[in-house]
Design a protein that fits this description.
Blueprint lengths: L6 H8 L3 H8 L7 H14 L5 H8 L4 E6 L4 H18 L2 E6 L7 H11 L4 E4 L7 H9 L3 E6 L9 E4 L1 H14 L5 E5 L5 H16 L9 E3 L4 H12 L7 E4 L2 H13 L9 E3 L16 E3 L2 H17 L10 E2 L2 E3 L10
Parallel strand pairs: 1-2, 1-3, 3-4, 4-5, 5-11, 6-7, 6-8, 8-9
Antiparallel strand pairs: 10-12
Helix pairs in contact: 1-2, 1-3, 5-12, 6-7, 8-9, 10-11
């Protein structure tokens, strides 16, 4: 079997010192362009891949990024991981995930311990955990690089990626009213979360602007799970006068509404229009396909990873100030014009 090429082989064939090769591998800027190009050519020709442990020791870092979350939506987590991993593979980093219990009294302490124990260079934090001021403060105090993904502007722009849920949900409310609907209900997410409040308030405020009030019996709080979507849908659809539209805070709960409507013999969208939020894989595959708001989760996660790596490597980049993304409306089969 051929011997695996080493950094010594690269240095010898490039005619430079091992230290210079190490600088190129680790992205240092104090190497001339011609020398860098010559070394990179030898690396490519040899198929040389630096040992991650040795590389990390040389650069005083581990080349590990962390992902902290407490979210029941597996499809959301999958999209986030795809976004982060696409950047990690390009930049030579690995990803370590850490599910936590956001409601635990020790969750901040546990998250900091996870980062230190795993020797992680930086961490991305997902909602609702990202909404914790205490966690952000603890990470700063321990000099840990972090970026929060959230629905509101909670931090310095370098440390956050924000989904403008309020603006997007306003677009959805206007669309539903444009179809002629006035009797509209909402299954909100947990009201302890900023994201749930942004969507509920944005939806309700836009309807009010359009002359439509949401009565208390048309607002019900879910848990952002499929099962809670089923429970909330039953509570809404057994009312003596059922709503013409149900908007659910996420696609998981909207799928629960679809199930209950099917069980009750309510035709979608002829008798009931349904809309969700996220545009996860489920939304385009249920029958009828779901009108929803597409949150660009993978792009958000990629941006978060780029920001973290820029912090780690002390590389100035315009992306550090690039923090706001706007979800957009996806119209499918689960909504239609109101019957006259």
């Amino acid at each position: 079997m051929d011997k695996r090429p080493t950094i010594n082989d690269v240095a010898r064939l490039s005619g430079v010192s091992k230290r210079t090769v190490s600088r190129v591998i680790n992205g240092a800027t104090n190497v001339g362009a011609n020398t860098r190009e010559k070394i990179q050519k030898v690396i490519d020709e040899l198929g040389f891949s630096p040992d991650k442990q040795a590389r990390g020791l040389a650069a005083s870092r581990s080349y590990l990024l962390g992902l902290i979350y407490d979210n029941p939506d597996a499809l959301f987590i999958d999209q986030v991981q795809r976004g982060v991993l696409s950047v990690c593979s390009e930049k030579g980093y690995e990803l370590v995930v850490h599910p936590c219990n956001y409601n635990s009294s020790t969750f901040v302490e546990n998250c900091v311990k996870f980062v230190k124990r795993s020797n992680i260079d930086g961490v991305a934090i997902l909602p609702p955990v990202s909404e914790s001021k205490e966690l952000a403060a603890a990470l700063r105090e321990n000099n840990i690089n972090y970026v929060r993904m959230a629905s509101v502007d909670l931090d310095d722009h370098a440390n956050i990626v924000v989904s403008d849920d309020r603006a997007a949900i306003s677009d959805l409310a206007r669309y539903l009213v444009s179809l002629g609907h006035r009797d509209i209900a909402i299954i909100s997410g947990p009201q302890a979360y900023y994201s749930s409040l942004e969507r509920l308030e944005g939806f309700r405020d836009t309807l009010k602007e359009l002359g439509i009030e949401l009565p208390p019996n048309r607002i019900i709080e879910g848990k952002n799970t499929y099962e809670s979507g089923i429970e909330c849908a039953r509570n809404l659809l057994i009312q003596s006068s059922r709503p013409a539209v149900i908007f659910a805070n996420n696609d998981e709960m909207a799928a629960g509404v679809l199930k209950v409507a099917h069980e009750m013999g309510i035709r979608i969208p002829e008798e009931l229009s349904i809309a969700g939020f996220d545009d996860n894989l489920l939304a385009s595959r249920v029958i009828p396909s779901l009108t929803t708001v597409k949150r660009p989760v993978t792009a958000m996660a990629s941006l978060a990873a780029k920001k973290i790596i820029a912090m780690i490597e002390h590389v100035p980049t315009n992306e550090m100030e690039d923090y706001l993304v706007k979800p957009h409306l996806i119209i499918r089969e689960s909504t239609r014009k109101a019957e006259k």
